[in-house]
Amino acid sequence: RAHIRFDGVGKEYPDGTVAVGNLDLDVAQHELLTLVGPSGSGKSTLLRMVNRLVEPTSGRILVDGEDIADLDAVQLRRGIGYVIQDVGLFPHRTVAQNIATVPGLLGWDRHRTRERVAELLTLVRLEPDVHGPRYPHELSGGQRQRVGVARALATNPSVMLMDEPFGAVDPEGRRALQTEFRRIHDDLGTTVLMVTHDIDEAVLLGDRVAVFSQGGKLEQLATPAHLLAR
Ligand code: ADP
Ligand code: ADP
């Protein structure tokens, strides 16, 4: 069955802007779905409805068969990784402290947290002893995005929402990050919704690609092979 199901989901902002139309979409367990489309086609709104930063004005979203409107929003968010462009790392906390944010909120003991932080830094190909004690401004843009990914993975979420995760990284660094992320995804089997404006990235990383148009209308949903064959 679907891991995430959008069932007639729509979002109209109070000013009358229809950001997402009447969306029906199933995302499979372990799928990496990329979302593309022009600016303003509702992609960010769609992601933000899954972690309830935005509430839909129609329809429902089911995760593991449960209507997320019935869940506690804070609880829900802790089980969902969220990575945005430019990450939003806390500037006055070290890399390790940033990654340890949610484990800290959950009251993990120091030893477990330390092990997890080291494991995550290694996963994203950073060195715990070198990069862990640094502050975000002491890293490159690409390294900061790696930290953002590590932080989002801290509690082993089953769902990851990524909004232009590599958008601010230079082309060379971006390619490396894409490869790394595909590997991490294959290893962990997280279900991922990834917004990107980079069609090459969408095709390279996506198991399927969802193409949106103005008004948040799903125009096309296809595998990369199918898209490229057209
Ligand atoms: P995308 O991520 O594809 O660029 P968005 O989801 O950011 O699209 O925006 C979709 C539409 O909703 C746009 O027309 C945008 O201006 C509008 N929108 C986004 N956020 C708000 C908001 N908080 N209030 C009103 N309109 C908004
Ligand atoms: P606190 O903020 O509680 O004083 P620290 O500043 O030492 O603790 O770091 C916050 C968390 O990050 C701690 O749980 C610690 O185990 C972990 N941590 C700190 N530095 C590292 C590191 N270099 N590698 C792995 N984990 C670290």
TrEMBL record:
Residues 4-230 form the ABC transporter domain. It comes from the Bacteria. The keyword Nucleotide-binding applies. One of its GO terms (molecular function) is ATP binding. Keywords: ATP-binding, Nucleotide-binding, Transport. Signal peptide: none annotated. The keyword Magnesium does not apply. Belongs to the ABC transporter superfamily. This is ABC transporter ATP-binding protein. It comes from Georgenia deserti. The chain holds residues 8 to 237 of 331 of the full protein.
